[in-house]
Amino acid sequence: MIKEFNTQTELNVKLEALWAVLSKDYIVIVPKVLPHIVKDVQLIEGDGGVGTIVIFNFLSDVTPSFQRERITEFDEISHEIGLQVIEGGYLTQGLSYYKTTFQLSSIGEDKTLVNVKISYDHESDIQENVKPTKTSESTLFYLRRLENYLLNGA
């Protein structure tokens, strides 16, 4: 049964700038903001919209070595993007389903509220070694790195 975990954060950047790096430019941006984890990101299939498949290749000391994701939601009007892991990554750590959805809202001229929904399922009910609170910490860390990237003249 798919479970959900929700969290949110406020970032001190304009919604349009954050949306661009989170939804359109992430193939180039992710290795720049997470250079200690991500070696590169490759577009495997698609044009950046729903159905697009990308692969995140991690550095040699990171296990697992890659994570393949599919964009399952992409709405430029509501600034919402959903990314489902379809191979590697958390699926090698006891999860059978893992999806992160970001929804951005402007809360001021230079502030954006990011609602994060993590949907997940374990391979079995007893195997819960991947906790949504831990994965949400890495997601929030990534968002903070994007904020720093944008604030430092990206």
UniProtKB/TrEMBL annotation:
User: Which InterPro entries does the record match to this protein?
Assistant: Bet_v_I/MLP, Bet_v_I_allergen, Plant_def-hormone_signal, START-like_dom_sf
Pfam families, alphabetized: Bet_v_1
Signal peptide bounds: none
- Tell me which GO cellular component terms the UniProt record holds: cytoplasm; nucleus
Its domain of life? Eukaryota
Record domain Bet v I/Major latex protein: where: 3-152
Molecular function (GO) terms for this protein are:
abscisic acid binding; protein phosphatase inhibitor activity; signaling receptor activity
Which terms does the UniProt entry file under GO BP? abscisic acid-activated signaling pathway; defense response
Classification via PANTHER family = OS08G0374000 PROTEIN-RELATED, PHYTOHORMONE-BINDING PROTEIN
- What name does UniProt use for this protein? Bet v I/Major latex protein domain-containing protein
What's the source species for this entry?
Psophocarpus tetragonolobus
